[in-house]
Amino acid sequence: MILQEAIKSIKASKILTAVIILLLIAASLVCNLVLDKLSSVRQSHNKLDQTTQKSYFWITEDLHDNELEHRFWNSENSYDRIRGYYQEMATSNEYKYLEFCKQVIWIKDSYGKFIEKVNRSLNLSCLNEFGINVIEGRLFTEEEMNVDFSTQTIPIILGYNLRNRHQIGDTFEGKYMLRDFKFKVIGVLEPNSYIILTNIGDDDVGDFYHEYLDNAYITPMVNCIDTPKSKDEKTFIRVLYMFKLNSIIAAPADYNSGEIRAKMDDLANKYDMYDFEVISISKQELKILKLVCKDSIDIMTVLAAILFVFSFICLFAIMSVKMNKNVEYYAIHLMVGASRQRIILYILTEIILVVSMAHSLSYVIIRKLIGSQIRYTLTWLIVSLLAFMAAALPSIYQMMHKELDTLLLGDAYE
Amino acid sequence: MSKLRLENVNKYYQSGSGTVHALKNVSLEIEQGELLAVMGRSGSGKSTLLKVLGGLTGIDTGCYYYDNKPLTNKERHMSKFRNQHIGFIVQNYALLYDRTVFENVELPLKYAGVRKKLRESRVLEILEQVGLEDYEQRFPHELSGGECQRVAIARAIINNPEVILADEPTGALDEDTEGIILDIFKELNRDGKTIVIVTHDPVLAKKLHRVVYLNRGMIHE
Prior knowledge:
- The complex is a heterodimer of chains A (414) and B (221).
- With 414 residues, chain A is of the alpha+beta class.
- Chain A has two domains: 2-44 and 290-412, no CATH class; 63-274, no CATH class.
- Chain A has helices at residues 2-12, 14-52, 66-74, 78-90, 124-129, 231-245, 257-271, 284-335, 340-370, 378-401, 404-408, and strands at residues 54-61, 96-108, 114-122, 134-137, 146-147, 153-158, 171-176, 179-189, 194-200, 206-212, 217-220, 223-224, 247-252, 276-280.
- A six-stranded mixed β-barrel of chain A has the order 2-3-11-6-8-7.
- The longest helix of chain A has 52 residues, at 284-335.
- Chain A is elongated.
- In chain B, helix 3 (101-111) crosses helix 4, helix 3 runs parallel beside helix 5 and helix 4 crosses helix 5 (145-157).
- Chain B is globular, with a radius of gyration of 17 Å.
- Chain B is built from seven helices and ten strands.
- In chain B, 44% of the residues are buried.
- The chains are: A alpha+beta (414), B alpha/beta (221).
- At the A-B interface, helix 1, helix 8 and helix 11 of A face helix 1, helix 2 and helix 3 of B.
């Protein structure tokens, strides 16, 4: 009977209920959008904050001397030597070795034709350093980072904008590092996922830039310990380790390039390697970006607060009108035998129903209008519920404390 | 034996201009089966007296006895009392305008916990008694004033209360309709109901068993 009465009360003021729902949908859209953007900017700020507290060094092969590299690959045991060099460079307690590869992969379409797609290959340290995560499925496992020449399938994660192209579990044929593989989709990245990469600025100093992953296929930057025999296998290893040795080192702030240079020289002697350069990456741009982020956070926080207060007042006001209209209505129930506790239950049930209806509708509409790019935040749910509850408090107070004859006068009393 | 008994009852109201002493040391005994008229000027305390008798409002001092048992101001006690013993008819009918005649009349039975089938037959029976058969699916806004008043009466008597309290039940009705309403009250009274009617109309009052007058919150018989 409580639910029935609450529904009847909603039906009795259809127009007001519709206005409340419309208002809540509009407020939900705006408030969630601002909150979502605020949360994204905060995440960026935190990432930048972490990044500016570290020293970054870009390791890149010396492009001025191709002859050395050519001689290296033609020398004895070059494949074992390069893997040994890599293994010791990548393993350190002092720094993180971030491997990334900007390349394309070829995916076979339904006509059997290979189509070029944007691919970014990352190692686990890279995923971890930049807080990359999935909204569906999973990230790569430690085991999936190792392949041998019998491996036929490697996992792939879809950038957020590619989430409708394939399903998790789908497999498709393609080429990775010029070698044929099957790709198995294991997850979808969160929207706006990015890594921070480097390039060389005009002053020969490395600069940071953001590399968004929404439109990329993400593959693991694998290791391969098999000894290559065929020409294809040798090419695969050469391409793979060429990319793996061009990396970024993330180290504590007091770490300097001399320490890395010394380690690289030692290893180069040990494995008779060709030359690599160490480029210190300037954090100046990151610091400017961080300041811009901080300003954006301040402005958006003020904007969000204003929006929330405004939405709260609007929802409170209109719900108060509805609740006041109900006082006389519920007084009649009291007159014919309902208890005050029961009437309060009617009011609370009605609010819960209106809130649920309004939020469900606004959730569906926001998803239809904008897709899942903005999150429906808990903060907004709580604020709107508080507004409704606050609007109901005067009615609940009246129902608990006013005499029935006063309540029966309804609007005239007010 | 007195059905309702007030002893030195005082009732105060807060209004914009201060405290209003609505009932001053009111003592009144109403017998079982009595048909009583309460008269007085506007603001004399008639409606307040009726609301006190119906448990719609509590008293500030004095005692109120129903069947010689004291009635407290506790809400749970009052709501049970209203539901079991009192049928109340207010000036503006106090109907739920989004509900049908049937639903309006059925409401007290729902709060009394009566089963649906029994409720249906009881509502139809009462509507026939007040001459509103075939009106059960209509809404109050489709009815005349007299018909609305009969719906209010039907709702007041649906629980078979021993006491019926009516505040100006014929105030807004024409003479013919007033006659119909009065006949309903007389018939209910013949069935043993105790009825108290607040009215301005001396002609109506004369047709009842007894008249009490209120003047500035004090009673004169």
